[in-house]
């Protein structure tokens, strides 16, 4: 679509997810690109953390979640739910289905290498230590019960508020707080066993 | 707090660091997602004429025709007035124009109607188509 036919707002002013989705439903393909750029990294990050860093699986589920969003666009009713909340909920269900499928097949959750660092470590030694810690955290997350892991990832990695998490997980806010607290206690217990190895004693 | 337990602030710090490591979609994934978006891109709709049609209830038969005529002339009042004028015009074509003219010019227009239906003292042939007779009879009575 020629740029001179695009809504002016799309070109110059930030639009809400809902507005972009409405434009997509009206036939503006450019709105899909903006939506994907905005939402795909978030749900990909969520899926990756939930799947123990399995990038390939996370990408497959990310594509599936976005496909469901495109299909839902024509019937989307503004004001009923946030697009991001809806998408996280779809992704959460896809992730849970995948995790249960792994359990049924007796597969362990693969703990892959932590994502490449953005060169924040001042030295090679610090970089190695950080990678060790990230690997340990991924393993500790994988060991959490599914719902606690979900709550912790949404709270501490996706930086969502408790009410938003409650809407995604379809539980109450107090239940979210409880899951996050228990999840963090579980992570602390797992990592404490490797405290010296991971260098927490030195800080 | 047990000596071996990790400090909560250490965990929070570690979570913060890990959150800052970006997990970006690959170019291949973005292409696949955009390909799906284009496949399912809704087509823009033309204006729906049924929305306009729905505003005007449709009736059938003479009632529908009369309704359209009424709407076209701007309502019942206008239509009635035009109907009266048309009826008077037809009647004027059947009676003595002079008598009619005098009645029309008089203040009491009731003479118009009375004069139209009053019997003529000297019955005359009605010139239904005076212009036509001019052509039919070699120029009409004047020519005779």
Low-confidence stretches of chain A: 113-121
Distance between the termini of chain B: 138 Å
Number of helical elements of chain A: 10
- Name the quaternary structure: heterodimer
Please outline the major beta sheet of chain A. none
Main features:
heterodimer, A: 203 residues, elongated, B: mainly alpha, 8 helices, 0% strand, disordered C terminus
Topology:
The complex is a heterodimer of chains A (203) and B (144).
Chain A: H1 8-12, H2 17-25, H3 29-50, H4 55-72, H5 83-104, H6 124-143, H7 146-156, H8 162-169, H9 173-192, H10 195-198
Helix pairs in contact in A: 2-3, 3-4, 3-5, 4-5, 5-8, 6-9, 7-9, 8-9
Chain B: H1 8-19, H2 27-39, H3 49-55, H4 61-73, H5 76-92, H6 97-105, H7 110-117, H8 130-136
Helix pairs in contact in B: 6-7
Summarize the entry for a quick read:
The complex is a heterodimer of chains A (about 200) and B (about 140). Chain A is an all-alpha fold. Chain A has helices spanning about 10, 15-25, 30-50, 55-70, 85-105, 125-145, 145-155, 160-170, 175-190, 195-200.
Description:
The complex is a heterodimer of chains A (203) and B (144). Chain A is mainly α. Helices cover 68% and strands 0% of the residues of chain A. Chain A is built from 10 helices and no strands. In chain A, helix 2 packs across helix 3, helix 3 crosses helix 5 and helix 4 packs across helix 5. Chain A is elongated, with a radius of gyration of 19 Å. About 4% of the residues of chain A have low confidence. With 144 residues, chain B is an all-alpha fold. In chain B, helix 6 packs antiparallel against helix 7. The radius of gyration of chain B is 44 Å and the shape is rod-shaped. Classes of the chains: A mainly alpha (203), B mainly alpha (144). At the A-B interface, helix 3, helix 4, helix 6 and helix 9 of A face helix 1 and helix 2 of B.
């Amino acid at each position: 679509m020629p740029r001179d036919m695009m809504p002016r707002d799309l070109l110059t002013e930030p639009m809400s997810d809902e507005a972009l989705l409405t434009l997509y439903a009206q036939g503006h393909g450019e709105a899909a690109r903006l939506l994907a750029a905005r939402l795909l990294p978030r749900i990909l990050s969520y899926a990756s953390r939930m799947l123990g860093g399995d990038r390939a699986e996370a990408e497959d589920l990310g594509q599936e979640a976005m496909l469901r969003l495109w299909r839902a666009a024509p019937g989307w009713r503004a004001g009923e739910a946030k697009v991001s909340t809806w998408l996280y909920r779809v992704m959460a269900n896809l992730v849970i289905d995948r995790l249960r499928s792994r359990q049924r097949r007796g597969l362990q959750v693969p703990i892959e290498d932590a994502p490449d660092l953005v060169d924040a470590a001042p030295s090679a030694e610090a970089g190695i230590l950080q990678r060790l810690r990230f690997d340990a955290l991924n393993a500790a997350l994988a060991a959490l019960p599914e719902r606690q892991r979900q709550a912790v990832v949404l709270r501490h990695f996706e930086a969502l508020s408790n009410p938003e998490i409650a809407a995604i997980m379809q539980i109450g806010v107090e239940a979210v707080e409880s899951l996050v607290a228990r999840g963090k206690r579980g992570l602390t217990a797992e990592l404490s066993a490797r405290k010296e190895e991971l260098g927490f004693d030195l800080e | 707090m047990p000596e071996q337990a990790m400090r909560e602030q250490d965990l929070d710090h570690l979570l913060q660091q890990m959150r800052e490591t970006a997990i970006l979609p690959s170019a291949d994934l973005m292409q696949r997602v955009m390909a799906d978006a284009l496949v399912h891109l809704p087509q823009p709709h033309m204006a729906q004429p049924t929305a306009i049609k729905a505003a005007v209830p449709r009736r059938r038969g003479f009632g529908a025709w009369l309704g359209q005529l009424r709407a076209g002339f701007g309502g019942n009042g206008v239509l009635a007035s035009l109907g009266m004028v048309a009826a008077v015009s037809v009647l004027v074509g059947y009676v003595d124009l002079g008598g009619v003219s005098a009645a029309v010019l008089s203040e009491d227009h009731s003479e118009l109607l009375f004069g139209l239906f009053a019997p003529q003292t000297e019955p005359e042939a009605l010139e239904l188509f005076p212009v036509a007779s001019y052509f039919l009879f070699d120029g009409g009575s004047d020519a005779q």
